[in-house]
Each structure stands twice: as structure tokens, then as C-alpha cells.
Amino acid sequence: MFEEVSKILVVDDESINLELISAIFVDSPHIKVLTAKDGLEAIEILKIHTPDVIVLDIRMPRMNGIEVLNVLKSDPHTSHIPVVVLSGDDKERKNALKNGANDFIPKPFDAEELKLRVINNLQVKKYHDLIKNINDVLQKEVMKKTKELREALELAREAEYEMVVKLGMISEFRDEETGQHIRRISYYSKLLAHLAGLPESEQSVIFYASPLHDVGKVGIPDNILRKPGPLTHEEFEVMKLHTIIGAKILDTDPRFITLQAGKIIAEQHHEKWDGSGYPYGLKKEEIHIYARVVAVCDVFDAMTSDRVYRPAFTVDQAIDIMKKNIGTHFDPNLFDIFISNLDEFLKIKETFKD
Predict the structure, then answer these.
(1) Where does the record place the HD-GYP domain (predicted)?
(2) Are 332 and 274 in contact (CB under 8 A)?
(3) Cβ contacts of residue 235 below 8 Å, gap of 6+?
(4) Angle (CA) 148 153 154, round 5°
(5) How far apart, in whole angstroms, are the C-alpha atoms of residue 53 and residue 50?
(6) What's the CA gap between 187 and 306, in Å, rounded?
(7) What is the DSSP letter of 251?
(8) Which H or E run contains 56?
């Protein structure tokens, strides 16, 4: 998976945990584990090494995990590094996410889950770095007004879209969804943005950013994400965190328009028109137009697709259910546009069927 050696920094005041986590990656030759017994030692290590992922305990002497997070996220040299927190306390984990953590692992931790979560965050980091590098190259090259450059820009844009789709699929595969779901959302969203009168530049942005709407599901445990029955209240509260996790993953320099738009969509696509959504209870135009567009498209595609907890609804059943949520869940204007042009959306559905 990783051609170059990836570095993981594990910070925990319990030496047994440092040994256990180091042992987990013994059979991974492309992953090097660095260890620190507390936050202060971790800060010193970061002056020499730049890890790709940090696994951080919350309760530590001298400098606790939240204090370390604040240092990491306030420094532009370390703010981009994914942080996976270790804690047995639900409030501590939520507080860590609010302070910039990207993921969490309950303590006592399961070795296989820890390894998979770290590898997932390494994948996200690699894709994030790759997209960033492509944008840097494009910005330097954009001054060259040549035919070769235009062809290269088009190829790079196509490559960026494929990478965004692959990034979105990291979480979708765990949710038993497919790459076709990601592509349908992309084309649905661009079409609805076009029909709603958004400028062509914004139609393009939403086309490339919408596949990232559920990337935060990479941080949700399998026992919740793939549960065949209804979620408990506590489980749903954890599920809702995928919006915040997604925004953390996609938080980057404002120059990277696709990732910035993806952050907005990931964070707000479960907000509702009447303010009853999550994570912030935004309502009406407080919700970004990108998120309102994706909300209509995502719900339609989810309802007309098979899920682990239910079979797909027919198109007519889905539309009937969605009509009952006009003005509560969905932007009424966008939903009217969607319904009035349903045949065009169904063509996309047929083109990218599972």
C-alpha cells in the first residue's frame, strides 16, 4: 500500500501500550513506529521527525493529550497530521474531536481495529498530500498558455477527480456502498447545481467535491457503521460524528478549492432546512448551497439503493417519502427542481448503476 516508509508517532505514558502498539506493526515493513512517553517528549520528537499519523493518549502527566492537540493544530508544520486519540471516556473522545483530532480508538483498544484505523488515516494522509502536490504543480504551471499545458491540466483534473472518488470510497467500502454511488452523487449534484442556476465554475466545484460527503465514516466503528438493525441513541450520536470527522480530514489551505468545498459538504450535508439536522442545527440559507444540493441527491440515492439494514425503495416510493420532508429536511426550491427534472436524474442513475 505504501511505497515509502510511513512514520507513526505513538504517545502514551504507559510503556506496555507503547510496546503493544509497536508490536502491531512489526509485520508492516513500510511503517516505522516512533514512541513518546508523554506530551513533552512528543513535542521534542516532532522537532526532528514529521510523522504521517499520531496516536495520542488523552490522560498523561506533565502534558495531557488535549494540550498536545492544541500545540499540534496551532502549528502549520504539524496541523495537517492526522491524530488518532486513545481514550476510554466518551466525553474525552468528543472533546478531542472538537479540538482537532481526526479519529478515536476506545481504551482498552482492540489491536486489529487500531491497526486498521491507523492504516485508514495513512491512506487519507497520502491522498491528501497527493492532491495538494498536484494543486501546487498546477498553480506553478498555469502561467504557461500552451496547448500542451491545457491538455495537461485536463488530464490532471481527471486524475484529481479519480483520486477524490477513491478517497470517498475508503469509507464507502466499509459501509457496503460502491464507487458507483460516489459517481452518481457527483453527477446528480452537478446537474442539480446547473438546473438551480449556479455558475459553471461552482457546478464544477460541486462535481469534484461532492464525492467527499461521507469521508468521515472512515472514523466510525464497524459495529455501528455496518449494523443491520436500528441504531441505539448512543450509537447514533457516534454516527453523527462522521460529519465532524470528515470536516477535520478535509480541513486545508483555502487555496485548495475542491478540499475546502468537500469540507463544507461533509460537515453540513446532514443539516436540515428546518434546523433539526446535525451537527450544528443550521437552517435554511445558513446551510451552504453545496450541502443543500448534495442533501437532496444523497438521500434520493441512498433510498433507491440496497443497504445493510434494508432493501432499496422504488423510485416512486422514495419520491413519495421525500415529498413529506419538503420544507423540513430539504430546500423546497431545490427539491421542486429535482422533481421537475427527475427523468434527467434517472438517466444518470441508469448510467452508473451498481
Answers:
(1) 156-354
(2) no
(3) 224, 227
(4) 100
(5) 9
(6) 20
(7) -
(8) strand 53-57
Evaluate whether 105 touches 113 at the Cβ level (below 8 Å): yes
With a pLDDT cut of 90, the percent of the chain lying above it is 54
Phi, psi of 55 (to 5 degrees): -100, 120
| Cell numbers found for residue 79 | 496541523
Grid-cell match 429536511, residue found: 329
The predicted structure's pLDDT at residue 351? 93
- Give the pLDDT band of residue 1 (cuts 50, 70, 90): very low
List the one residue out of 97, 45, 25, 42 whose CA is nearest residue 249: 97
How many C-beta neighbours within 10 Å does residue 84 have?
Answer: 22
Q: Are 188 and 341 in contact (CB under 8 A)?
A: no
**pLDDT tens digits along 79-111:** 889 999 998 888 988 899 999 898 889 888 899
Evaluate if residue 242 carries a pLDDT over 60: yes
Q: Say what the pTM is.
A: 0.63
Query: Which residue blocks in the chain are alpha helix, DSSP H?
Result: 15-24, 39-46, 65-74, 90-98, 111-141, 147-174, 179-195, 200-209, 222-225, 233-250, 257-268, 289-303, 315-323, 332-340, 342-351
What's the sign of the alpha-carbon dihedral 330, 332, 333, 337? positive
Residues 75, 28 contacting (CB under 8 angstroms): no
229: which DSSP letter? S
Q: What is the pLDDT of residues 23-62, one digit of tens each?
A: 999 998 889 999 999 999 999 999 999 999 999 999 998 8
Residue 301 has pLDDT above 90, yes or no: yes
pLDDT at 174: 46
8 A C-beta contact, residue 22 and residue 33: yes
DSSP codes joined into one string, 126-148? HHHHHHHHHHHHHHHHTT--SHH
With contact defined as beta carbons under 8 Å apart, do 354 and 307 qualify? no
Tell me, what amino acid is at 347? K
What's the mean pLDDT in 141-167?
61
Q: What are the structural domains, with CATH classification, of the chain?
A: 6-121 (3.40.50.2300), 144-351 (1.10.3210.10)
Cell of 87: 481514550
Q: Residue 321: what pLDDT?
A: 94
Closest C-alpha among 135, 54, 41 to residue 100? 54
Beta carbons of 45 and 34 less than 8 angstroms apart: yes
